[in-house]
Specification:
By secondary structure, this protein is an alpha+beta fold. The protein has helices at 23-35, 56-64, 185-210; strands at 3-9, 13-19, 39-50, 93-99, 107-110, 114-116, 129-133, 139-148, 159-166, 172-179. The protein starts with a strand and ends with a helix.
């Protein structure tokens, strides 16, 4: 008998006991939890002004690696969007702005200084340092976030940890997932199950077409 039992759960961590599921399917679920689920990350940065000591590329990289909260119910991946535009639209991208302004003191620009056009898609942690600015230095950027998957780049990883261990019986496995915060742990597992089901269905169709 196939079953899935939640043993432990919090917003960013979940432990699930899998029974009657072949090891290869359980491991496929683990891999999808880690890097096969769409999450938001900054993918394009327009530097309007940067007089800091950090090069434009460094600023863009730090912004790209900020985990962003994700809402999969309202957004789609660019490849699945009807706009078919490289610039994207309101269904497949979100604009975030950062304008440090000018100051007479040394200060640190953090993820809290990013303002998003969407009420949900914003940095998971508001206290991540981006760059230190000396008196008179400024940083102003436009950042565009889109959905992607960790299999394309690590900045889209939905989890930091996805581990599969043996259970108390031969047909039992324990899946432990810790998320980056873009999605809750339960959302990651639920979406991973749906993704695995979708991939298996597509594989069956491909095999049927060859026979």
């Amino acid at each position: 008998m196939t079953s899935l039992e939640i043993v432990e759960q919090s917003d960013n961590r979940i432990v699930v006991k899998l029974r009657g599921i072949p090891l290869q399917y359980a491991n496929a679920l683990r891999r999808i939890c880690l890097s096969g689920i769409p999450t938001f990350a900054i993918d394009d940065v327009v530097i309007i002004e940067n007089s800091s000591v950090l090069a434009d590329e460094g600023v863009a990289h730090r912004l790209a690696m900020l985990p962003l909260r994700t809402d999969l119910s309202r957004f789609v991946e660019p490849s699945a969007c009807d706009c078919h535009s490289e610039l994207g639209c309101s269904r497949c991208r979100v604009l975030l702005m950062l304008d440090s302004g000018s100051s007479d003191t040394t200060r640190t620009v953090t993820s809290q200084d990013l303002s998003s056009e969407d009420e949900v898609v914003k940095p998971v942690n508001p206290n991540v340092p981006i760059v230190a600015l000396a008196p008179g230095q400024k940083l102003k950027v436009e950042a565009y976030a889109r959905l992607g998957r960790g299999s394309e780049h690590a900045k889209w990883n939905s989890a930091t940890i996805a581990v599969l261990t043996e259970g108390s019986s031969p047909d039992e496995h324990v899946l432990t997932v810790e998320t980056v915060g873009s999605l809750t742990a339960s959302e990651v597992v639920k979406t991973a199950v749906e993704e695995l089901e979708k991939r298996l269905g597509e594989f069956q169709q491909t095999i049927a077409a060859l026979s």
